[in-house]
Specification:
The chain contains 15 helices and three strands. By secondary structure, the chain is mainly α.
Length: 327
């Protein structure tokens, strides 16, 4: 079992960014992390990117503290031991690679600022990025139905989980956009959902289909508190109410429901993103045009959709529209 502490990392970073809370209990490390945060801002990274970059570094920092180390005194062996412990986590290859890459970038920054005696380039001579490791899992329509049927919608928790998973499975929304969904985004009169995407800051409008509309109404009527002015749909049930931003990290729920449904997850990713990919792959298999899929997913370029769906040139020819004959 790994000694790496992951639980609570995302919330700590959120509290630091939103409230100015300290990241670390160690004053030296805390100041370094704050400086690195300012560095990431100077690179014009968006908030989501900054959160993820800081989270990887913070998990590394927690490991160092448990071993009575600070950033200023670490050596190569400390980093290698950390990476070895991370390999015991239930992370996919892409997460492991991203972890190494973010630590490498952080150590290059600390070295350039004379904080550490080692740089990321000294520790990691070369990191091979597995671009396609995050797009290979696909659950069939039958498996998605089994997954949804495994959720007990008689309970408040079940109603919430069913709505979250339905929004991804039937509309292809990112989990960040699901969790940040607001009442003001929903137009029941015209049956559509309009959001500013968290990742791209672009407007996305999707139809409010019945498979999403009825779970949403059920949740709003029977679960969500009504005595609040909070616009977010997903909020806590006990006063004082707050936005349940932590739902972003609850990937384990997808795995639990898949296992409960008897769906084989061996060698397959089993988080929220795998459901979004299953939705888009299903559209592809139904010969929906690449442009339409790209629009639904909220991608800015068709190239992104092609990489996301792992489309080769032969499949692209199948998806191409026939050019009409002109006399």
């Amino acid at each position: 079992m790994s000694t790496i502490q992951v639980k609570g990392s995302y919330k700590t970073i959120q509290n630091f960014i939103e409230k100015g809370d300290d990241i670390s209990n160690n004053n030296t490390n805390n100041e370094i992390l704050k400086l690195y945060y300012q560095h990431l801002i100077s690179l014009e990274n968006n908030n989501n990117t900054i959160n993820l970059k800081l989270m990887y570094v913070y998990i590394f920092e927690r490991y160092l503290v448990t071993n009575n180390k600070t950033f200023k005194v670490i050596n190569k062996e400390d980093v290698y031991n950390y990476i070895s412990e991370c390999s015991k986590l239930n992370w996919g290859i892409s997460y492991q690679d991203n972890n190494k890459f973010q630590i490498k970038m952080f150590l290059n920054w600390t070295y350039e600022n004379t904080i550490t005696k080692i740089s990321g380039d000294m520790v990691f001579s070369k990191i091979v990025w597995h671009h396609k490791t995050n797009i290979r899992t696909y659950y069939t329509k039958d498996e998605i139905i089994k997954l949804l049927n495994a959720i007990d919608v008689r309970t408040n928790q079940g109603k919430e989980d069913y709505l979250i998973i339905s929004l991804i499975c039937y509309l292809g929304l990112r989990i960040s956009d699901v969790v940040n969904l607001k009442l003001s985004n929903i137009d029941f009169n015209n049956n559509n959902i309009s959001i500013i995407q968290y990742k791209t800051d672009n407007l996305l409008t999707l139809p409010l289909i019945d498979k999403v509309k009825y779970p949403l109404l059920d949740y709003l009527k029977n679960v969500r508190p009504t005595d609040t002015d909070i616009d977010y749909i997903f909020i806590t049930n006990i006063n004082p109410y707050r936005h349940k931003i932590e739902l972003k990290t609850h990937n384990h729920k997808v795995r639990n429901y898949l296992e409960k449904a008897g769906v084989n997850i061996n060698g397959r990713k089993h988080g929220f993103h795998s459901l979004r990919h299953s939705f888009s792959t299903s559209l592809l298999n139904e010969d929906v045009s690449l442009y339409s899929i790209s629009t639904i997913l909220g991608h800015q370029q068709l190239d992104t959709t092609m990489m996301y769906l792992d489309i080769d040139t032969s499949k692209l020819k199948e998806l191409a529209l026939e050019v009409p004959y002109v006399k």
